[in-house]
Design goal:
This protein has 683 residues and is of the alpha/beta class. Helix content is 19%, strand content 29%. The protein has 4 domains: 152 residues, Immunoglobulin-like (Sandwich), CATH 2.60.40; 88 residues, no CATH class; 92 residues, Immunoglobulin-like (Sandwich), CATH 2.60.40; 306 residues, no CATH class. Helix 2 links the parallel strand 26 and strand 27.
Length: 683
């Protein structure tokens, strides 16, 4: 069958219900049935949703194949043909208990089946997906044969599009509720002219003339002489409560149980003044949550009974906005709602409405937005001593059998080990520490990592020959060293250049102190960027010579002028053809914070992972640098007795990004009070 709008031989009836103040009209259409007779049909009284649900019944008397299944969808458009840029119609699929938007794949929509004569007579349930786009709309029922292309394609028309209804006026929200019969109410308010309200009820089908009017089984059709699809006029600009008294039994449609029962409909004078909108609405992000607060609304008549909280998200498509969902109802005195289980980093939008005792629903509050934070946590990675802590750090970040070449440095002093991070980054290795002898725990960790080769950093005064011999019994061992700490940093840089094909940028830090060099270690590791050591007031000859021979063009100085003087920077400016940048703070803690922020700005890491180590000793930070790098994070230094202000401010400023704060070392290295302070900041 040719795809397109089959207006020939297609007769359609649409009966609408659950519509408040919409005034649907049936425009003339060739072959369209003006009325429908015969049989009783169920439909839901309400669906508890922030968008008015409607039920459309359509009857196709020709043009379809017999005993054939079709996907059916609702479309809402301001035009007489479907508009591929809109996504405002939502169709209910009872089989999956889901609402499907217009532009989803056809296979997600409900399936309808023609009879042996090719006829189709069924209901379809819909709702409007964007209250911000109120106005007059055509409602269309579109069909696509199952087995056809299922992916939505704006250029492919459905097999059949039925266009027999059009709203006469703006779409008006229907505030609904479940529960007591008196709460089952449509908000019917005429807008500019006489409005028509549709309702449908079900015949008892008991073959008894219960109301003695001479007609069998018409009792549930409403007023005497009216059919099941009946209407009545509402005076202009007058508000009424429409009550439908219906009993419940076992038939379930859209999760609402309906039954055969007498239906009484009445327009009743009521408290028609809605409560005010809640004011001062705020949305505060928390860990995978948002807390919504508001000031109480007022109501001059029956009083505020409670509040409704709505949530929605902006769609990635500019064509539509995801529908507002009712996520909570609260009692009159409750003006706060905690929305949990949200997705970190997603923007959520909220509005609040008040409901009075007479079930009038007030206007929407101002819209507020919030982006939930991650589910933040703290942990401590430590061992019984510095060597065990290095092993614990390695175990926390490096999987079994993933490290072929491991880097080992002395844990007794810092100079030779300061430049090890870049080389460890090339090898993808942790930095393990060794003392005057090789322990069983060290070899066990090397074996767990799958190490076949061990690189020792520093000369024999740093890592004794006895250690080298002991390790040689199990692994291929090599040593990278220089005549002093400065020469060792050059030797490491040359090895990095050899393994990577060359380096053009390096960190420069003082060699007679460890703090600044440790601060850059995660980025030196992640970027395979050498750390060259200098004296506070001069550049050693071995280092200045290496700048040229390595082909370095740019440099980053870690630390202020007391650590690396202005003279040294001037000398580096002369040696390097590119840029020399100084990243610093007034003390080691501020410098570590400045380095962290600089690296994040460069894209070398982020604050999702924060490693914290004492700034007074080197071993834990030495092993922690590679761990921070493995987590694409940053390393901060703190006073071991109390959380340093730069760390506190960094956590506060980046709270929305942080997933984990990892404290390196035992409580002897970084006290429990520091962790408590961190946890308080993450609340």
């Amino acid at each position: 069958m040719k795809k397109g709008h089959l207006r020939q031989r297609v007769a359609v009836l649409v009966v609408l219900a659950m519509v408040a103040s919409m005034g649907w009209t049936i425009p003339s259409a060739s072959g369209a049935a003006a009325t429908f007779t015969g049989g009783a049909y169920d439909m839901p009284l309400y669906v508890a949703n922030d968008h008015t649900p409607v039920a459309l019944r359509f009857n196709v008397t020709g043009g379809l194949e017999a005993n054939t299944q079709y996907y059916a969808k609702i479309r809402f458009t301001a035009d007489v043909t479907p508009n591929s840029t809109t996504n405002r119609g939502w169709t209910y699929n009872a089989a999956t208990n889901t609402w499907i938007q217009e532009r989803e794949d056809w296979t997600l929509f409900p399936v309808v089946t023609t009879d042996a004569s090719g006829l189709l007579d069924t209901w379809i349930y819909a709702k409007f997906g964007d209250e911000d786009q109120s106005g007059s709309y055509y409602a269309m029922v579109s069909l696509s044969k199952t087995g056809a292309a299922s992916t939505y394609n704006a250029s492919v028309l459905p097999l059949v599009t039925v266009m027999d209804t059009k709203t006469a006026g703006a779409w008006i929200h229907n505030g609904t509720a479940t529960g007591a019969a008196t709460a089952k109410r449509a908000e019917v308010t005429s807008v500019a002219s006489t409005s028509t309200v549709y309702a449908l009820s079900k015949t008892e089908a008991d073959a008894v003339d219960s109301d003695s009017n001479g007609v069998v089984d018409d009792e549930d059709y409403g007023p005497v002489g009216k059919n099941g699809d009946y209407r009545f006029a509402v005076p202009t600009a007058t508000a009424f409560s429409v009550y439908l008294n219906r009993n419940y039994s076992t038939s379930t449609i859209l999760n609402k149980t309906v039954a055969t029962a007498d239906t009484d409909i009445a327009l009743m004078a009521a408290d028609t003044e809605a409560p005010s909108a809640p004011s001062n609405v705020t949305a505060t992000p928390g860990s995978d949550s948002v807390t919504v607060d508001w000031d109480a609304a007022t109501d001059p008549d029956s009083g505020v009974a409670g509040y409704r909280v709505y949530r929605w998200q902006a769609s990635p498509s500019a064509s539509y906005t995801n529908p507002k969902s009712l996520v909570a109802t609260t009692a009159a005195g409750v003006t706060q709602y905690l929305d949990e289980g949200l997705v970190k980093g997603e923007e959520y939008r909220y509005e609040v409405r008040a409901v009075d005792v007479a079930t009038n629903v007030g206007p929407r509050s101002a819209e507020v937005t919030a982006v939930p934070l991650g589910l933040m946590d703290t942990t401590r990675t430590s061992g019984a001593d510095r060597y065990a802590t290095a092993i614990a750090l390695s175990s926390s970040a490096f999987a079994d059998s993933t490290v072929t070449t491991a880097v080992v440095a002395t844990g007794r002093d810092f100079p030779d080990a300061l430049s090890a991070s870049s080389l460890a980054g090339v090898y993808g290795s942790p930095i393990l520490l060794v003392g005057s002898s090789v322990t069983a725990s060290l070899t066990a960790e090397l074996d767990r990592l799958g190490a076949q080769h061990v690189v020792l950093i520093g000369g024999t005064s740093a890592v004794p020959t006895t250690v080298e011999l002991a390790l040689s019994a199990h692994y291929n061992v090599s040593r990278i060293q220089g005549s002093d700490r400065y020469a060792t940093s050059v030797a490491v840089a040359r090895e990095v250049a050899s393994l990577t094909g060359g380096v053009t940028e390096a960190f420069f830090a003082r060699g007679d102190g460890f703090a600044d060099a440790l601060a850059v270690s995660p980025f030196a590791y992640g970027q395979a960027m050498p750390v060259l050591l200098v004296r506070p007031t001069s550049i050693p000859t071995t280092v200045s010579a290496a700048v040229g021979s390595l082909g370095l063009t740019d440099g980053i100085i870690a630390g202020g002028e007391p650590a690396v003087s202005a003279t040294v920077k001037t000398d580096l400016d002369g040696l390097l053809s590119g840029t020399v940048t100084r990243v610093w703070g007034t003390d080691r803690y501020l410098t570590a914070r400045a380095v962290a922020d600089y690296g994040v700005a460069q894209g070398w890491g982020d604050y999702s992972y924060v490693g914290i180590a004492t700034g007074l000793t080197f071993p834990d930070a030495l092993g922690g640098g590679p761990v921070a790098a493995q987590n694409h994070g940053v390393l901060l230094l703190t006073n071991p007795q109390s959380l340093s202000a730069p760390v506190s401010s960094a956590i506060t400023a980046n709270k929305g990004t942080i997933d984990l704060v990892d404290i390196y070392g035992s409580e002897k290295a970084v006290t429990a009070g520091v962790r408590t302070a961190v946890e308080a900041l993450l609340q």
